[in-house]
Amino acid sequence: MKKIILGLFLMLGLISFAAPSHINTAKVKQDGNIVMLDDSYIFSFERPVGQSSELSVTYHIGNKDPKILSEKIKNEHLVDGIDYVDSGESEVGYVHKLYAPQEDLYFYIVIAKRQKIKNYIITAILQTPEEYSSKSDLKAVIDLAIEEGEKYLK
């Protein structure tokens, strides 16, 4: 399962990045999160959400337009065995709903529209057996992901 999440993150367009100096990595670890990637151009961590879901947050460092990144997810095949279902947006972010039939899991990829710190794009993937379809549910997924990502920015 971690390979699927890692594959999804890597397909989000890792282009021209710098060191993630505005991320409080010590607090990420102190809060019990699991660090997945810690490079000079990308930082990613994962934490459980409830009993059956996981949230993975990634900071992509670079001058990239979140809307273009969102459109790229819509238009490109991400990973074999994962079906693209739908997309939506709120005032703060974009969300893409994917489904992995073999694992019977949904993946909600969230991309923050605004950057709290210039050139730090927050993306997140919520992995869950739950299907969220209503606008209010999708908005809650977006808000959860972005709040969790912004919490660790310095």
Blueprint of the fold:
Layout: H1 2-10, H2 25-30, E1 34-38, E2 42-49, E3 53-61, H3 66-75, E4 83-89, E5 93-100, E6 105-112, E7 120-128, H4 135-150
Antiparallel strand pairs: 1-2, 2-3, 3-7, 4-5, 5-6, 6-7
Describe the structure.
- The protein has 154 residues and is an alpha+beta fold.
- The chain has one domain.
- Helix content is 27%, strand content 35%.
- The chain contains four helices and seven strands.
- The protein has helices at 2-10, 25-30, 66-75, 135-150, and strands at residues 34-38, 42-49, 53-61, 83-89, 93-100, 105-112, 120-128.
- The protein has a seven-stranded antiparallel β-sheet, sandwiched between helices.
- The longest helix has 16 residues, at 135-150.
- It is globular, with a radius of gyration of 14 Å.
- The N and C termini lie far apart (30 Å).
- The model is unreliable at 13-19 (pLDDT under 50).
Helix content class:
25-40%
List segments where confidence is low: pLDDT < 50 over at least 5 consecutive residues: 13-19
Helical stretch tally: 4
Mean pLDDT: 86
Percentage beta strand: 35-45%
Structural class: alpha+beta
Compressed to H and E, one letter per element, the order equals HHEEEHEEEEH
Shape: globular
Q: Count the domains.
A: 1
Radius of gyration (Å) = 14 Å
Tell me about the largest β-sheet.
7 strands, antiparallel
